[in-house]
Design brief:
By secondary structure, this protein is mainly alpha-helical. 75% of the residues lie in helices and 0% in strands.
């Protein structure tokens, strides 16, 4: 993993970086397992998120140490320099906020609304990158992003039920904005840090933030069975180490618009996994929306070769 993460980021990205693209796709495949594994968890939602971060830390630490040594940074002091530390820390705060808002939104709004609104995060990150980081956005990427967004709306069912903005919807919007800020902050951190360093710092900060959320939320904190422990360990290794770790690699090597489009495919992949694991039939909406999102991903690949 350190080989691909420590490669220098090119000054300009006229074509898609194959390593970054592979890392981003693998990241989304790993993150797509999150709602599947959470179904088997026997702890409160925020507690599951906390344990997910805790069990990822040992692996992230080893990865970060190996990556620093390969890059010729033999001291932990490389982890304590600005501005990368500040950006990675802010990414951690934003990630904890995303989890807190999303978990609070679920009981107060429809699944369709929560799914659609929270998936506005990648789109918001593109806008933020354009405004704050002066990112150039190609017309082909904008077109693909629009197609992907339509696909998400169809997949979630928001086009059938309509989109109202109640308290739960506002919380879901807060989750989307928090995750968008996480993506932008992680990009800034990746400009000055190695991928594993950025992931390690943001995960530590997010874990501390989730402690406060767990105390407020209450509920079962410790897993109650061997299966429960296996689930939270799986969340840590699959969804956090592979998912968020590889996304840090991809974010550092790909344009924001391409990252956003790939991230929008995550709900579709979760639905496909649920079909095989739980036998949940894929609806026509999910199939049509999934095809549109995958077509958008292919559009970016073809137009940026």
């Amino acid at each position: 993993m350190s080989d691909i993460a420590s490669a220098p980021r090119p000054a300009s990205l006229p074509a898609l970086d194959s390593v970054g693209l592979g890392a981003m796709i693998a990241s989304v495949l790993a993150i797509a397992w999150s709602p599947i594994l959470i179904r088997f968890a026997d702890v409160a939602p925020a507690a599951a998120a906390f344990w997910r971060l805790v069990f990822s830390l040992p692996v992230l630490f080893v990865w970060a140490e190996a990556e620093r040594r390969r890059a010729g940074r033999h001291s932990m002091a490389s982890l304590l320099t600005r501005p990368g530390l500040l950006a990675a820390s802010l990414a951690g705060v934003a990630f904890a906020g995303d989890l807190a808002f999303y978990h609070a939104a679920l009981p107060l709004t429809s699944v369709a609304n929560a799914s659609f609104i929270s998936n506005l995060a990648p789109v918001a990150s593109v806008v933020a990158g354009f405004v704050l980081l002066r990112d150039r956005i190609r017309p082909a990427v904008l077109a693909a992003l629009a197609i992907a967004l339509v696909g998400v709306a169809i997949t979630s069912g928001a086009h059938r039920t309509g989109l109202t903005m109640g308290k739960g919807d506002l919380l879901a919007l807060g989750a989307a904005l928090a995750y968008a800020f996480y993506l932008v902050a992680l990009r800034v951190a990746r400009n000055t840090r190695l991928a594993a360093d950025a992931s390690l710092v943001s995960t530590v900060v997010a874990a501390f933030g989730l402690i406060a959320i767990v105390l407020v939320e209450g509920g079962t904190f410790l897993p109650q069975s061997p299966q429960g422990w296996a689930v939270v360990i799986g969340l840590g290794l699959i969804c956090q180490v592979l998912g968020q770790g590889l996304s840090a690699v991809g974010i550092g090597r790909l344009p924001a618009g391409v990252v956003a489009i790939i991230l929008l495919s995550h709900p579709v992949l979760s639905a496909v996994i649920a079909y095989f694991v739980f036998g949940e039939a894929l609806s026509l909406d999910q199939l049509v929306g999934g095809i549109l999102i995958l077509a958008a991903v292919m559009m970016t690949r073809i137009n940026m070769k």
